[in-house]
Design brief:
It contains 28 helices and 14 strands. With 688 residues, the chain is an alpha+beta fold. Among the domains are: 2-112, no CATH class; 460-585, Nucleotidyltransferase, domain 5 (2-Layer Sandwich). The strands form four sheets. It has a five-stranded mixed sheet with strand order 5-11-12-14-13, with helices on one face. Strands 8-7-6-9-10 form a five-stranded mixed sheet, with helices on both faces. Helix 4 (150-158) runs parallel beside helix 7 (187-199), helix 6 packs antiparallel against helix 9 (235-249) and helix 17 crosses helix 19 (416-422). Residues 1-8, 202-207, 228-232 and 337-343 have low confidence and may be disordered.
Amino acid sequence: MNHATSHSDAHVTVGRWIGTYVVPADSAARQEIQERIDRVVGERLRENCGSCLEQFLNVADPAVWRIRNLALNFSVETGFSDPDEVARSWGRRLAADIHFVVERAEQSDSVLRFPSAAAFVAQFILDLATDRAWGKWYYEEFEDLRALSHSQAICAALLRDHLLPSDVILHLASGGRLETVLKALNDGDARTIYDSCFESVAGASTDGGLEKWTGIVLELWNAAPLRAASQDENRFRDALRLFGRTLAQFPVAQGDTRLKTVIGGLLDLRRVLSFVQSASLIDSLIKKVACGDFPAATELAAAAGASDPIAALSFFAERMQGDAHWGAQAVAVILGDSQQGKYLTSKTWSEGQSFLSSFGSIFLLGPSLQSLRFDEVANAAAEPCESPEKTAAIVRHLTALKCLGQIRFMESADDPALRLFSGFEGHSFRQALESMDARQLNLAGAYEVLLRTLVDPEEFHDPCLFAELASLPKGNTAFILRDLAHDEWLDIAPVSGTESEVAGVVQASLQRFSRVCGRECRALFLSESLASLAGFSRLSHIAGRVTVFHPSDDSIQCLLAGQLGLTREQLANRINASEKHYPFFCFPHIWPDREFDPVLDGTFSLIARAALKHFARKLSGFEASGPEHLYQNFLLGLSEVRNSDQRLEVRLPASPLSVILRMAGLQEQKYVATWLKGSEVCLLPPQE
């Protein structure tokens, strides 16, 4: 049974009506009664139920309900003479029961609600892509697609008449589930879907306004690189990726054919550039396009093997408008996901070769890491391993990644600038990290080297420490020990189990501190999460005074702020810093199928945090800034790294607050990092 109103697309469909008629035993006209009731149900009930639902429900509500069954009992005189009255009575009953289910809004295995038709179809194709769709009762309307391949069925479901494919793409992209569906599509079906997203809506023309969408797409592409650039085998899946990302941020882009022109132009340009394997040739091509020497640029691309490069280079020229610097930045984004430069090492890097990287600003942190004996920490950790030099490079690379933040791990893990900075030369950092057995590392020795660097005995006359617990994803917890006076994190350790076991972790941490510092902790403040440990005698034996810090206790706040020479506000910010900032550094679940060793994670989170804190202290007014704030304002942007006369030249990005770096004298530093085997690093200011 189906009902569609004249005011909206709202409709009610009954997939199957099963009726059991109970009539008096002495009734002589059973067959006739059945036929009359069948006609009421088949010819009149649909319309009457629909009319009542229009009164009960909001027909503008886009929600889709799936109700597995409704069991109703109707009664009627066997000799009824007015079938319309019966249909009206039964229609009201059926509509009332449907209304009751919707109003109660209680979902179960038999009652499901989807916020819109797009959400319903999105869930179906998501289940289809993960091979979980067939057999579910609420997908009966798609049974005609069962004989198709997953890719064909997804395409067919998206192209049904009542649906805008772009609505479904928007729903999937907004929920972070588009990638799962794209993996189930072949590129031919992806093309059909992509084209239909622009045919369904009368969007804007391609005349003018392309600059805005070009900037937006490049920004989104740079934030999350796609895949290794190749010729065309995944072109339309990549087009859907970029389209989905743009829709998620700018829903107004639905149907705008200017966006289609931009995505197509950028992917065409990537195809052409993928043939040009040399950074110097790419640089030459950019300059030729910028100065208007279009024939020479076309000839260069064709000589490299690119077929029909004219349209792509014309698009590039129109967007560049003679600005070679913009062109270089755009190319860096487009090729940022390619293999070019990914496995660059000091052995394979020729004189004069350069590349662009979104993470070259890691070299700004080199002096800070050097002051923290970065190389000694890594070497101490790797010393027991079979290949200590390779293992040390892996943990250096891990530390560099932590300095950039865990949300950027996937896109920066194999970045060529990070590889040159850390000295990691493996094929894949993930594979290297997974193959490394953390149990073989000397993490205790590495930690002691770092702690001796962080704790200067001459400055730690009366240590005042703060102990707390920080929550991590999936219910995990870490213990953090901090020196409040110098704003240093001194220890990070996983905790679990009983209160006594947690107390043991705290005790061991304090004992390590005392052994390195050479003196007892004068005052230990416990966060409220550790308040139950205040009475443990073994803590009082290694700390002069144990006090629970209650944020609402004004007397304790005033006492501690006075001891540290801080205002109440400064103290509150310092106390709350770990809860806000620790997630930036920790990598407990960077891969859904593998857990990270918590001791390894904590040890190198400490040195990454210390490096950023050391860096922040060089920037007047930013000493208390959090790691993400530092990244967004000082490390964000495209850098150029060049091999010049046996040294690394790093042209720093034009970050939002690069003027502060210039004022602090950090943009034109030179240093020799011990782990780079004597290579001098020369930092250069951004190009004007």
